[in-house]
Amino acid sequence: MSYIFTKLFGYLRLMRPANILTAITDIMAGVAISGFLLAGYGDTQSVLQFLCLIFATIGLYGGGVVFNDVFDAKLDRTERPERPIPSGIISRTEAIVLGVYLLVLGVIGAFSVGEVPGIIALGIAVAALVYNKWGKHHAVLGPLNMGLCRGLNLLLGMSVVPGSIPYTGWFALVPVLYIAAITMISRDEVHGGKKRPLQLAAAGYAIVCIVILVQAWVNGKLLEVAPFLAIFLYLIMRPLLAAMKDPSGPKIGRAVKGGIIGLIAMNAAWAAAFASFPYALAVLALLPLSILLSRAFAVT
Fold first, then answer.
1. Which CATH number applies to 10-296?
2. 3-class SS string, 34-61
3. Which of 62, 146, 174, 219: disulfide with 183, CB 3.0–4.6 Å?
4. What residue spans define the domains of the chain?
5. Span 257-274, average pLDDT
6. CA 226 to chain centre
7. Is DNA repair there in the keyword field (predicted)?
8. Torsion-angle region of residue 120: left (phi > 0), alpha (psi -120 to 50) or beta?
9. Three-point CA angle 191, 195, 198, nearest 5°
C-alpha cells in the first residue's frame, strides 16, 4: 500500500496541483470575458461545455508541467534531486506516458466543445512542449514562449463563444506579459540573481494592473474589481519587494510562487470586470485551496 501511495503522490507532484487550480481560473476568467455567462449559463449543454474546458485545461497544464520535469531530469539530478524523476519515485518513461496521456485528454476535451477550442488546445500543447524542450534555454524567447501558453489558456476559456475572440482576444496578451515576467525572474530562484529582472517584473505587473483597471472603468465595475485587485497586488508585490531587497534564491523563489498563486486573484479581477460579483468570488474561492496545496506540492 505504501508503494502505491508513494507512486500516486509522485505523479501528483509532477502535475503541480496548486498550479493546475490557477489554470482552471484562466478558463473561468476567459468564459466571463467571452460574455458566455450573460447568455444564461443554465442549460445542460452550457454546463457541459464549461466542464469540458475545465477538464481540458487540467490535462493541458498537467501534461505541460510533467514534460517540464521530463526534459529537466538530467539537470534536476544536480539542482533538485528531491523531484520525483531524479529521486527514482517515478521513472522517466512513466512520466512521459503520463504527460502524453494528459495532453491527449486535454486536446480531446477541448475538441468536444468545438473546433476553435480544439485548435487552441493543440496550440497550447505544442507551445508547452516547445518551451520545455527548447524555449526555456532562450533568455528572451523563453519567457515569451511560457507566457504564450498562459495567454492561449485564457483564450481557450474565451473560445466557448468563438465569435467573441475578434473583440476580446487581445486580453490574452495580458497573461503573456505577466507570465513572461515571472518566468524571467524564476531563472534565478536556485542560485540567486540581480535586482534588474525583479524591477522589470514589477513594471510588467504594473502594466497588467493598469489594463485591468482601465477595462473595469470602461465596464463601470471599478468598485467590484478593486478588492480582487488589492488581493492580487498583496500576493505578488509582498514577496517581490522582499526579493528586491535581497535577491537570494529562496527570496526569488517565494516571489515566483507568489506570482503564480496570484494568478487566481488576477483572474477573479477579470471575472469581476466582465461578470457578476458572486462569480468572481467563486473564482477567488480557489485561492485558499491553491495555497494549501502549495504547501504540500512544489509550485516551481
1. 1.10.357.140
2. HCHHHHCCCCHHHHHHHHHHHHHHHHHH
3. 146
4. 10-296
5. 96
6. 22
7. no
8. alpha
9. 90
